[in-house]
Each structure stands twice: as structure tokens, then as C-alpha cells.
């Protein structure tokens, strides 16, 4: 059977040694019903001679009864093993197959395509390094293709191969392949799929599966097998964040006390300083013990026993980390949840949450929204039904140590267990509120009940009399490099010299203080402006003139900020500057980083900037000097009777 059969016969120990040293690649096949997922796996194993003779004989016999190839060899039967699967010609459960080549070991998960088996697909994808998404060349990108692509992105699979199958049924058309590729790319732009590849093939006939196809000379890329053997996954391993959840404390006798577990990520060496979460007690690694002897260093995913130099309290469920690189510790967080039970997820109901080796009781305090996996649209929901996916707020009885799922798939994932039946009812991926684009929108949040607005003993009229001005907020909006900060502080200086009371709210300064927990996604920019608008309103209530310098790229968000501040108090000034000029002023290198993809969601480059439609003033800062810009804004304030 094997390509290494000669080595097996001559030196079995050497063969096993080489086999142990091979890199393991886990991948899934997914896509719409009848796109040929099971056929592809069967053909891959058959052409690479990875099927035992008795298996092959059984499949050839079954092909005459259950096959879909007119009595010929049907490769799909290799993985469609359930009776119902063979009768219906579909995949229902996740089927796993193991094989190896001279370069790698592989574990394949053949996942179902039907919507009612979404939970099965999510289970198969949870440990995968790569996803093969099949597309029928006749039908193109379908709803189920999009659903599986979304789940692939949700579960953090970085490498995706879109296999356009059944090319024989479209006469191996290069034009049809390119149409499907462009259609999929347009959809995938909304997902997080950093390493995306495309391959035309015919699984039934074996074109471009193991051997290059003579029918598609226009395709100059690798075959499927070559791609699987060479795709680079080394960078996927998190070697920075050392995380070792403690599975149990090994105390065989009085002179030994070790802490056993599997390293989730990172590297550890003898003598390294470590910290135990959640107690935050510190010590140093005395030894790294394994079945084969002590090690000087260990890394993920090795299972080891650590002994420490100090006697500190460590229990099952604790996590050993490095002091300078610790996970978050909290009992409340947000997560994307795939619901797997017939009974719906109900906020407030008590469940068990198992994350690494830690189990804690808790509940879902809120379903923030449910995702329509077919359209990617969000919808309000009070609960999640079977196979539904949504973002939920989790509240546990005790804090857990965790990382954002996209940074660490081991410490950022959990399962939900029904307390009565002990059945796994859901799976969750923890969302980092500080970096996620799914940050909740707080514009419409209501203040807590029982609060009321306290009235000041100083009236607005008294403030106007003291400062000699009407309160106002001047919002300077424009691209990075348009001159917002420079003009804002020059305007503050001018107003101060005129005897006016003014202050600046600058986007950069806000992010060093009250908004330091925010990133730069569209939703986080929105939240930064919301907080700033609330502060500007308070300053205006105190009688001050506020100069707010923000990119504020979204038109609707600027309008919401205007409503918070008060329409009669807010003036919008658009600093209109060509992006070429903005680039020339960029001393921090933001634009080159955005061009290279290092900076995502950068307005004007990787994200849109929506100019104001009816600004109170437009300043062409590429042509107008700073002092002239300031003068025009002062004149605007005079015209609107904010100052005299």
C-alpha cells in the first residue's frame, strides 16, 4: 500500500522514526451538498495508494449497489460509511481518515454540507489547519459555500483552498474557473481568510488531484497533493504566549510534586520564571519531566510535568504562564457561540463552561445578535436555536484565564455543558472586546435605572457672561495627514489669545486615556467618537468651546455625534486634502503600512472615508496655510454668534 513499503520491510524502526518526525496537517473538506467532498477524499487516497486491499475490494463491491458512477468505482464510499449516508448519497456525520506521504502526515475530516448539520461541520473544523472548500463548477458559489466559508473564518482556519470541482462537466473551461474565482473573492473580502488559494480539478476522474491534468494545460499551479504537502503552517503556531493549563497535580511520594498538562502555546525552559493564574504566584521552573526523561525545553503541543523551585499552591484548572505575558483574567466576556442542542440557548439559564482544564458554572447574560450564516447579516435574537451562531455575553461564577480566540485557539475556546444531562450543547470562541470588529454598539444604550441628571448651581447665562461666548464644538474631520491636529491646537491658541475658554479633544490623545481599550476597526472608531462626543457635551455644558480633531470617517457616525452634542452646538469642518498630499505629510509611516496590509481598516486606503455632504465649512488644507484656516474658522464662529 505505502510508498515506503521497501523501508518498512528492511528497517521498521527507521520507518517509524521518520514517521514520528513528519509534520502533521489537519484539514477539512466542506462545501455545498453534492459538490464532491467525499469523492475528492476517496480519489486522493486511491491515487496516492493509501487504501488497503480489503477496503478497496469492499468499496468496489459496494459501488455496484450504492455507487453513483453507473456501477464503476465510487471513491465517495470510502468516507460515507453510515448506512443513511450511502442510501441518500450525502455526508451526515464527520468522517476522519488518516494517511501519510513521504513529506507529511494528514488527518482529513469530511464534513457534511447540509445546514442542519452545521454543528457537525463546526466540530470537524475546530482543530483544522486548512480547509478545502469545494465548489461545483456548474453551480458556482452557493449559499452553503458561503455558510461554510463563514464558519471556516469564525473558527480561525487561516489556510483555505477553494477547489473548483467537476471541471469535466464544464469542458475544463478556464473562463468558468476564473468567474467562480472572482465571485468567491468578492464574497471572501468580508471574511478573515488571510491565505486563500484556488485550484481547478475533477475529483471523480482525478484531474489535478495527485497528478497534473492534461485536460487543463492552462493551469500552472500545483496539484492538490503537492499543495497539501507544501503549504506552510509553521507560522500558525503561537510560540510567544506560553500557556500550560494544569491537568492534575502529580504527587507520587513526599519528595516529588509536579504539575502535569499539555502546553497550549509557547516555549518553556528550565530556569524560566513562571506565574500561576489566577493566584499570580510566581516561581521558577526547576525541571521539565517527561516519560522519556527530563528536557531542557518544551513547546506546544507536548505533554509535560513541570516542577517548580518554590512551594506554591497550584491546582487543576490553573494556568502556568510567563509573568511578562499573561492572559486576560475575567468572569465576564463576549463569545461567538455555535449552538448544538435541540433545546435553545436561554439567557439566564445555568450551564457548565469548560475551557482548557477549567470548569466553571455560569450563564449567558445576553444574546447580542444572531448571525445569518447564509447572508452574514446580523439579527436581533433572544435565544439561539440548534445550529445557529451568535454573539453572546457570558457571565461565570469565577474568573478564568483566557486569550482572544484568534490569537490562541486553545485558551480562547470553550464548550458549554448541560448541568442535568452532561451533554455538550454548545461551543464558543472568546472575542477580545479590545480588538474585535464585533464590539457592541453603545450609541443606543440607555443609562441605568434610578439615575437622574443633577442640575448645576451655575446657569448657562452666567457661564456665557463669564466667558463671553456661546458653547460650541468644532469637529475637524479629514484623512490622516490633512492637518486636523495642527489646526486644532492653532485654533485653541487663537481663541485663548482672544480671551475665550477653549480646549482640544484630539483622537490620538483620547486613545491614550479614556479610549486606550479601543482599536481601529469601524465599530471601535465609532465608539471612540461616541465617548468623545459625550465629553464634548459636558465641556459645552460648562460653557467651553471644544475643538474636536478626529478622522471620523463614517458619515452616519458623525451625525450621531452631532445629535449627542446638540445640533445647534456642533459645527462640522471638513479638511479636504488630496490623499497624495496626506501621504507626503505622513512622518509616522501609516500609509505605507496600510498599503502593505500591516494597518487594516485605514481610512482612504483599506477602509472608506465618507466626506461630509453638507459641512459648515470646507478648508482645502493643501492650498490654505494654517493661520488662514484658523482665521476662517474664527470667522465662522463669529457669523454663527458663538463669539463676538
Describe this protein's structure.
By secondary structure, the chain is α/β, with parallel strands linked by helices. The protein folds into four domains: 5-236, 3-Layer(aba) Sandwich (Rossmann fold), CATH 3.40.50.300; 243-321, Translation factors (Elongation Factor Tu (Ef-tu), domain 3, Beta Barrel), CATH 2.40.30.10; 330-431, Elongation Factor Tu (Ef-tu), domain 3 (Beta Barrel), CATH 2.40.30; 460-639, 3-Layer(aba) Sandwich (Rossmann fold), CATH 3.40.50.300. Helix content is 27%, strand content 27%. It has 17 helices and 27 strands. The strands form five sheets. It has a seven-stranded antiparallel beta sheet, with no helix packed on it. It has a six-stranded mixed beta sheet with strand order 2-3-1-4-5-6, sandwiched between helices. A six-stranded antiparallel beta barrel has the order 16-20-18-17-21-22. A hairpin with a 2-residue loop joins β17 (350-355) and β18 (358-371). The radius of gyration is 30 Å and the shape is globular. The protein starts with a helix and ends in a 5-residue tail after the last helix. Residues 80-92 and 434-439 have low confidence and may be disordered.
